[in-house]
């Protein structure tokens, strides 16, 4: 666990799934999955996910998994911070703490082109770890249909994780 200002980060528990679902339900940009999906994720992928708390309240989370066929790569699925807690580095702190904990040099994710905050957040991680972020189109209309914006695929790395280790 680490603390930056009043926010602390920790490994999620199944009890955190409901708060994650509530944050996503109120967030723009993200697909809302079922409460069941978040609880199950917290059971089976806690080691590659993280939550941020303000006191006892979950105010943000990152869900991720290590790619089964590429074990040097953490895929980040969703990142969300409660609106009232945004802009205070909660997301950056979660990403930093998570990549240090998982300890792999590459991170992949997808972002829609209109999500400036998310793009800045991942670009910041690349910068802090002394690396670059490459972009290609992953899922377009044939996979996502016409109702969903294209998801662009980003690969960050190799990350120098030593730059994130706090003394
Ligand atoms: C994206 C999100 C998680 C960022 O959370 P946050 O805690 O506010 O982010 P941070 O305070 O750590 O800021 C990270 C970087 O993004 C920048 N940023 C934050 N909000 C921004 C905005 N609205 N527009 C542009 N840049 C923004 C910050 O300046 C910072 O940049 P820096 O590292 O170069 O200084 C949050 O805005 C959110 O939950 N959005 C809705 C859900 C979403 O879009 N999730 C990502 C989907 S892939």
Automatic annotation (TrEMBL):
Its EC number is 2.3.1.178. Residues 7-164 form the N-acetyltransferase domain. Keywords: Acyltransferase, Transferase. It holds the Pfam family Acetyltransf_1. It comes from the Bacteria. PROSITE patterns: GNAT. Pathway: Amine and polyamine biosynthesis; ectoine biosynthesis; L-ectoine from L-aspartate 4-semialdehyde: step 2/3. GO terms for biological process: ectoine biosynthetic process. It is an enzyme of class 2 (transferase). One of its GO terms (molecular function) is diaminobutyrate acetyltransferase activity. Belongs to the acetyltransferase family. EctA subfamily. This is L-2,4-diaminobutyric acid acetyltransferase. It comes from Pseudonocardia petroleophila. The gene is ectA.
